[in-house]
Each structure stands twice: as C-alpha cells, then as structure tokens.
Specification:
By secondary structure, the protein is α/β, with parallel strands linked by helices. The chain folds into two domains: 4-139 and 305-334, Rossmann fold, CATH 3.40.50; 141-299, Dihydrodipicolinate Reductase, domain 2, CATH 3.30.360.10. 32% of the residues lie in helices and 24% in strands. It has helices at 15-23, 40-47, 59-65, 73-77, 92-102, 123-126, 141-156, 194-199, 234-243, 259-268, 306-316, 323-334; strands spanning 4-9, 28-34, 52-54, 71-72, 82-85, 105-108, 120-121, 135-138, 159-169, 185-186, 207-214, 220-228, 247-250, 279-282, 287-289, 292-299. β3 (52-54), α3 (59-65) and β4 (71-72) form a beta-alpha-beta unit. The longest helix is centred in the middle third of the chain and has 16 residues, at 141-156.
C-alpha cells in the first residue's frame, strides 16, 4: 500500500484536528506540523510526538521556551508529498508559491478563494475533480454542510433554486476575541459569500444565502428552503437525507432541540474534542410541500471539514479512486457512523 507523507502547515483549530485524523489513517502519515509561536498548542503537539517545524525567525523563541523543534518549515517541504495548509486566510498566495517551488502538492482551506487553486473539493459532490491535482481547496465549514445535504437532494430531484439563512456562531470556543457578546449581527453585504462558494463545486446550482452572527460559540445553524423541479413528499426527503454520507439525523422528540444538545451528543459519543464531523439534520424539521422543501441543519465549524481533508489527500495523491471507498476508510478511522 502506498503511504502519503503529509505535512500540516498551521497547528491550530483545523490543523490539529487534521493532524490527528491523518495519523489514524493506514495509508498516510504525519511527517510534521508547523507553528509560528511556542503556544500551548505547540506543547500539545510535542507531547503527542509530532515533529514541529517553525519559520527561521521562530527558532530562538522555541528554544527559549524549551520546546524542541525538528527544523524549519522549508526543511519540512523536503519530507512530504503533500501539505495541508491550515494557515490564516490571507497568506495562501505566499505559501502556494513556496509549495510550487518545492514541487509538492497542497490543500488549502475555505478561508482562501476558489481562484487560488481553481479546484474546490467536497467528498460527496466532486471527489474525482481533485484526482492527482497539485493544488486543491477544501471548502468552508458552512459550504461543506450545504453540499452534504443539497447534493444528494439535487441528484434525486433537481434543485431549481435554494435560499439559505445561516445563523453563524460568533467565534470558536477557544477564541476570546470574537463577538457580538449580547446581540445579533446581520451580514449587510448580500447575498453572502456562501452561495458562490457552493457554486465553486456545484456551478449549476441556483443558490442565495444570508447570514446572521449570533452570540454562541457552539455551531452554525442553517434554515434551508429549496424549490425542486418536481414534487416531493416529506418521507422521500427524509429517506434521501438519512442516506446522505456524513449526515446525522436527530429529533427534537428525543431531546435534541438545540445546538447545545447536538454538541452534548458528540460528547456522549466519545469524540475527540467533542467533535461532530457530521451535519446534524432535525428529522422533525424536514417538511416538503409540493415542490418546496424546508429543513434545518447544524454545522460544527471546527470539525466537519476534517474528514474532507483526509479524502482530499487520497484523491490528490491517487491513493483511492473511488469516493465511497475513501469516505468509508476515513469514517471508520474517525468513528463516524450512521448510528
């Protein structure tokens, strides 16, 4: 079996999760992770046995902090087949040039524009489009959530148009700088960027989005309204969503009425960091009326893109041709099931 050597550039919210997920795969290994500052996350990475690589200017601060490093970022490039870039969203162009010069592949995250790579990835919708590519981009958490549910619906009954209202979390749980603290903040630039991001994978889909930032850190919530080209009843819609990969159906009747309870479910499932990789859809919130379909879904912004990054590595490194087979391997390693 071929084994891909993977570097993680940016051991933060997404990067540390991707590193742990890659480590669990039988056909890939973590060659190293990068940090720019000797934070607690760097100490955690060291404790987990990950080799840490830093920019040249960070060598002394790490030494002063007593954190051992394996070398500089440039040295890591020579040890990998592919980098998963989890750096802040404004430095992609610089790192792309470095990866290109080093002759290695790279995956970028949804904070970068589609134009950076020309290819955007979602396991369910377009796994093969990144096959053997040098650069690809895993779409954002919200876009991943919308693709996971809208793609199967579109395949079953073509979507004529969709409108989605997104209630966004204000910040990740570990971020003390976000807001609003006590209020709701509408996105006044309309439509929001989420619709065009979905279209980077499903260019034929007529979709518009609005967003409101709320004072919560747990999850995003989507209120989806879709117009289909044919009539559909609620039972058929439920069957489609129940069969969709990486979608977890829950019910208010069983006690999961809020995103807080959805995250409590992730804790009870024993997930690392209480991650909910699946998109949570409320069964009792799915309603079809003629050719109109309505439903609610929740997205755990810290983790839903993690399995997508793993699958994208397989596609780009030509480890597995079949999307379903790759997803099955990833899900088995991460404990994702339909239960």
């Amino acid at each position: 079996m071929s084994v891909a050597k993977v570097g993680i550039n940016g051991y933060g919210t997404i990067g540390k999760r991707v590193a742990d997920a890659v480590r669990r795969q039988g056909d890939m290994e973590v060659a190293g992770v990068t940090k720019t500052r000797p934070t607690f996350e760097a100490r955690v990475a060291a404790a987990k046995g990950f080799d840490i690589y830093v920019p040249p200017e960070s060598v002394k601060p790490f030494a002063d902090a007593g954190i051992e490093i394996a070398g500089t970022i440039g040295e890591l490039y020579g040890k990998v087949d592919i980098m998963v870039d989890c750096t802040p969203g404004d430095v992609g162009e610089r790192y792309k040039a470095e990866y290109s010069a080093a002759g290695i592949k790279a995956i970028f995250q949804g904070g970068e524009d589609h134009s950076l790579t020309g290819v955007s990835f979602n396991s369910t919708a377009n796994y093969r489009e990144s096959w053997g590519a040098q650069f690809s981009r895993v779409v954002s958490c919200n876009t991943t959530g919308l693709l996971r549910t809208l793609c199967p619906i579109d395949r079953a009954a073509k979507i004529r148009g969709a409108h989605v209202t997104i209630v966004r979390r204000a910040a990740d749980p570990g971020d003390s700088k976000g807001g609003p603290v006590n209020g709701l903040e509408p996105s006044l630039k309309l439509p929001t960027h989420h619709g065009p991001d979905v279209q980077s994978v499903m260019p034929w889909l007529n979709i518009t989005t609005m967003a409101v930032k709320a004072s919560t850190t747990l999850m995003h919530l989507h209120a989806v309204a879709a117009e289909l080209e044919r009539d559909m009843d609620s039972s058929e819609a439920l069957e489609i969503l129940r069969g969709a990969p990486r979608v977890r159906m829950v019910s208010g009747k069983s006690g999961i009425k809020t995103t807080a309870e959805a995250m409590e479910l992730a804790r009870d499932l024993g997930r690392d960091r209480s991650d909910m990789y699946e998109i949570v859809v409320w069964e009792d919130g799915v309603k079809a009326v003629g050719n109109r379909l309505y439903f609610y879904q929740a997205v755990h912004q810290e983790s839903d893109v993690v399995p997508e990054n793993v699958d994208c590595i397989r596609s780009m490194c030509k480890l597995e041709e079949d999307a379903s087979a790759s997803m099955a391997m990833t899900d088995r390693a991460l404990g994702i099931s339909k239960g």
